[in-house]
Write a sequence for this structure.
């Protein structure tokens, strides 16, 4: 669309798609803040004042009378030691982003193995969300083991047609539905990589909540890999940041590359302090969130069946973590409008995340269960489904 056309449409009162989506997003954010019932209230939806108040209330997690950090000492070192202890690794290094942490980790491993090829899933974060950073910035060559909505199998790793120096596994695999393998499947995949003399790196952005499905401790899970990256803002509600954990020599080298990549930030105390608070307060609650996500998922399935929606899917059927996908036979814009309008009119926000198009007349959203979600009973969920479906069009979308 040309600038002239856009101006003409505004002059005649017509709204462009971009303007309509921006308005709908603003309504969605406002409805989420005012809703009396939601599954999650994410930290990044809060105001600056609210976030600053959270830092001020972090008295119990670190000495607030200590001098602030300078280039990674103080509270940042305390966070690194905490993460290494939780994961059972020799050391850990703080990074401003997970994108940087993983590029650095795999670049360091490529130097050790002599092979810059990284085997990963087609839906893994570097392939989908990082603008080809592995190859454009890191000098790495990603190869895709599979594009199926599951983790790669041991056979796919063992039988892949070319050599690779590192295997990267995203645990859980977010874009496939926050899915995890079983513990047995995971150990077999790692063993298959070892048979090929490849190192194993875990993209553990959401590793913290994977212990329930895998049935193992964080230390046991991390112990399978040669290195692990973890995030501080996704499930732990930190301001941002990540850590790379593994052998001391690798971590020390990663700090050199962190500096070269521009990640040697002068002061990081707000982010580090919020991460320590998340480890103290949110980490112990994650198994409870996972358990209740399974209650919510079952109630959603039953609610859509009772409401007469001809095709609806919760994936995975039994969530592997406290996040999962919901698929419905409507266009994304229709579902987003119905979601927001239901929240505005009832004060209950069933689907607060954006809907994305999955095909003609098919869309998907993510459901994330956190502390506020524990207040929902199965009957609450079913009632909310009834209210939501009542605001969907009678025609279109297969109804």
């Amino acid at each position: 669309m040309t600038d002239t056309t856009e101006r003409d449409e505004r002059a005649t009162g017509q709204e462009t798609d971009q303007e309509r989506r921006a308005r709908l997003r603003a309504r969605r954010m406002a409805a989420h803040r005012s809703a009396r019932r939601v599954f999650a209230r994410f930290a990044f939806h809060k105001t600056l004042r609210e976030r600053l108040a959270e830092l001020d209330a972090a008295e119990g997690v670190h000495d607030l009378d200590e001098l602030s950090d300078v280039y990674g000492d103080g509270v940042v070192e305390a966070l690194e030691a905490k993460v290494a202890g939780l994961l059972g690794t020799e050391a850990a290094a703080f990074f401003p982003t997970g994108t940087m942490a993983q590029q650095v980790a795999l670049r360091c491993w490529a130097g050790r193995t002599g092979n810059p090829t990284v085997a990963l899933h087609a839906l893994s974060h570097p392939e989908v969300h990082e603008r080809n950073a592995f190859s454009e910035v890191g000098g790495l060559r990603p190869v895709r083991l599979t594009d199926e909505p599951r983790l790669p199998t041991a056979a796919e790793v063992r039988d892949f047609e070319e050599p690779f120096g590192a295997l990267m596994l995203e645990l859980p695999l977010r874009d496939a539905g926050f899915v995890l393998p079983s513990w047995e499947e995971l150990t077999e995949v790692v063993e298959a990589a070892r048979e090929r003399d490849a190192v194993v790196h875990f993209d553990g952005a959401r590793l913290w909540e994977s212990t329930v499905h895998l049935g193992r401790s964080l230390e046991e899970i991390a112990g399978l890999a040669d290195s692990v990256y973890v995030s501080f803002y996704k499930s732990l509600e930190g301001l941002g940041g990540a850590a790379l954990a593994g052998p001391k020599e690798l971590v020390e080298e990663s700090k050199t590359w962190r500096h070269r990549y521009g990640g040697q930030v002068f002061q990081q105390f707000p982010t580090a302090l919020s991460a320590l608070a998340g480890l103290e307060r949110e980490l112990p609650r994650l198994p409870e969130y996972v358990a209740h996500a399974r209650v919510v998922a079952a109630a959603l399935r039953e609610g859509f069946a009772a409401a007469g929606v001809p095709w609806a899917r919760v994936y995975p059927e039994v969530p592997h973590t406290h996040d999962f996908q919901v698929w419905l036979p409507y266009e994304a814009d229709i579902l987003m409008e119905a979601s927001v309008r239901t929240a505005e009119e009832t004060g209950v926000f069933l689907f607060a995340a954006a809907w994305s198009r999955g095909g003609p007349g098919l869309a998907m959203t993510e459901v994330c269960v956190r502390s506020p979600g524990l207040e929902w009973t199965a009957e609450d969920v079913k009632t909310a489904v009834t209210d939501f479906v009542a605001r969907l069009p009678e025609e279109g979308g297969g109804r």
